Amino acid sequence: MDITKLSAVEIKQQIKKGTISCVETVQAFLNKIKQFEKYNAILETFDDAIENARIMDKKIKSGFNGKLAGVPIIIKDNILYKNKLCCCGSKFLKNYKAEYNSTVVNKMLSEGAIIIGRANMDEFAMGSSTENSAFGITHNPLDFDRVPGGSSGGSACAVALDMCPIALGTETGGSVRQPASYCGIYGLKPSYGRISRYGVVAFASSLDQVGIFSKTIEDNALMLEVLAGFDENDETSSKTKVEQYTKFENADKLKIGIPNEIIKMIKGMDCENNFFDFINLLKKNGLQIVPVSIKNIELALATYYILAPAEAASNLARFDGVKYTTRNQNAKSLQEIYKKSRSEGFGKEVKRRIMLGNYVLSSGYYDAYYNKAKGVQGLLIEDCLNAFKLCDVLIMPTTVGEAYKIGSKPSDPVETYKEDVFTVTANIVGSPSLSIPFGKGKNKMPLGIQLFGKKFGEKNIYDLALLVEKLVKKEANNAI
Amino acid sequence: MQYDVIIGLEVHAELKTKSKCFCSCKNEYGSSPNSNCCPVCVGLPGALPVLNKYAVEQTIKAGLALGFEINPIAIFERKNYFYPDLAKAYQISQLEKPICVNGHLKVFDKNIPINRIHLEEDAGKLVHSGNETFVDYNRGGVPLIELVTDALKEPHIETADEAIEFLTKLRQIYIYSGVADCELEKGQMRADVNISLRPKGSNRFGTKVEMKNLMGFRSIHSAIEYEIARQKEILDDGGKIEQETRKWDFEKGESYTMRTKENAEDYRYFPDPDLLAVKISADDIERIKKSLPPLPEQIKNKYMQEYGLSEYDTDVLLADKSIADFYEQCITVYPQPKSVANWFTTEILARIKGGAGLGIDKKNLVWLIKAVDEKKIQRLTAKEFLADIWGKDYDAEAEAKKRGIMADLSSDFVFNILDKVMAEKQAVVEQFKREKDEKILNFLVGQVMKETRGKANAQEVMEKLKEKLIQGE
Lengths: 480, 473
Fold this sequence. Notes:
A: Amidase signature (AS) enzymes; B: alpha+beta; 3 domains; 9-stranded mixed β-sheet; 20% strand
């Protein structure tokens, strides 16, 4: 049995039965990480992983039955795990050790997870390709010359290459769904407020959420069940009841909405045919499809690239060379400490967004940009509320096309920003959205479809995802 | 030329709360550096603020004490700037929707309009030592209220005296409402002052100059007078006032330019996405209103009308809340407000102002005042006795008895001494009988008092002596 091919749910069962031990499991995944080192998905494996597995084996023997008992997990490099490095893919934080556990880490540990390593990412989660890491580019698990997507590219690659069954990423505008799509796995961005952000290094606080990568839909639902819920350390976490996501229900009565605007937007895009294939699959199997409208969706991208940098500029100001970030040693005054340390510490894309963010917040431009973007955000929320009067789940492509070649994006950053056109809306309106692997692009690279739910409607999208998984299998069998 | 002076005040006061504004660290003065700190108040990556609801209540309380309207929804915003004492490189503050809006404070005969009171977090403190600078984040995140007067509306604060009266009254209201301790030497109350001048009668505002972070009422007073004089001089010479921020040098007694308009910071305020909007219901406001302790103005009315104290005595008593509180305690056990007030405004305050601290407890003080009122101790004797037992752990009654300073009112005691003195001073007695000179009588009273070692009442001795001498005729 190749343990690394098992899902988290299966690993848990096998360990419980005693067919495999927690130590064996962790070792198997550590070997996999070593084997695929050249993909540069993992920045560090934790040297206490085996020891923690040994302790967990004992605990399980004495009756411990946590929801993740013995399951190896990888976290993105911006999630704090006490006494472990947390660098956010930035050389500015290259020596920074977490002083406390994030709430998500605490929750996973208390359910028996073994956190075995941290994954590469675009610096401070800014980017869509994991080419912006200070610690090197991560490669696509299916084609070494291509990007895995980003910013959580390391986590996505790790799951796709069986380095762990479940990995955590973070989302601000698609950083989990897009790499999930590029790597052919499941990636969830939960509703804003569903998971505590405490101990997750902030990019844009009003849009950030921890996201979940998995190979199966059951694993994804299991992890959300562990992570979701109110946290007194995060005011913006929600008190809305956490549903039992792993108790799947029949989804064939759900009404599926297709935004008219999306149909127009995808004309000529690589994702176009695949999206229609998906619609046809649903139709063929009797699901009810309704046309809806999100009339301001074309403004979502511009809105995102105002709101996110604005918050980022403020959130990243604390990295100033005075405290935990690396200080430039030639600085001769306070102003120089700030200027030189920040100029040297941050990468190009991060600096670009900090400047953009400060610009849109500066006096004289605030109303024209930030305030206007806030206004559009309101309109988009209203659009979505109206659309959800007609349907339960919206569908749209995750990405414009398949994973592109490393280094192939033009130097104009706006071209790269356009990659996020389908993902940012969920962040702007606070909705949950799950990217499920579906179909292939012209280079046989995987594509993804988003199941986009009402706020706190994760249950619906998991149910629908499981149904889709069955339909896809049925289709494949029929084809044979 | 004659000018109108317009003075605007921004007053910061540290709120009295157990914990900081956005974390559960202690809000405590004087702890060892960086001992009251956590990931939130030192701005570690990933840490998030959680609002201390009590800090909001305290701010509402301050607002209600000054007759403010309370906003039903208040919003926290980030004020972004770099400085090492500001851990996150932004201060959580309020801009568009502060907790309190539109208040007033009566200063002499003017009702000064106040624009707002908002809640924000304090910054840490830089400690310089030789070539090195250290940061102490204990104060970082301590809840601070900022009050801003409304210089766009009339009437204005126009003189240094009015500004100081404003600050004095404000401080008193904060202290009495339990919102803040406002200990000036601890920096718990600080003020920024802005001043502009315009030709008398003009209704256009002049260019305003701001003076930052003034501590202590004396330096505020001097800084204002200095700035008014400086601006007058420039304007009289036909010059123009430059919009700038100036810093007051306490030692030199002058101010200097800190930054000009060109270098003014752009704080890039925006709503803090980590914090929810604060909803304040009418019920909350009502509940907090009910919890508001009596304020100086109300207490003053009571003292003057019910207790019959003079305005001067009342003001003296209320100037220090701990004194006023002690006074209230004393008159609950001995309901003679005037008599007690008399002791407070003279003996007690003089001793405290001498720097001795409060050196007597309620039981001893009340016993002493009562004993004097009942003529059991001579007032003068009592004053000396108070000085003796001040700050010491005596039981006043037992000690007075031990020392034998209690008045002996038995007629035998006084008569015996009268007889003794009259016998000894036969010649003087005779002289009085002849001349009926008051001075001679006073001399005799003095002799008797001396013999009684202060235990008798001089008035009584005088009367008894008169009786005797006249009777003797």
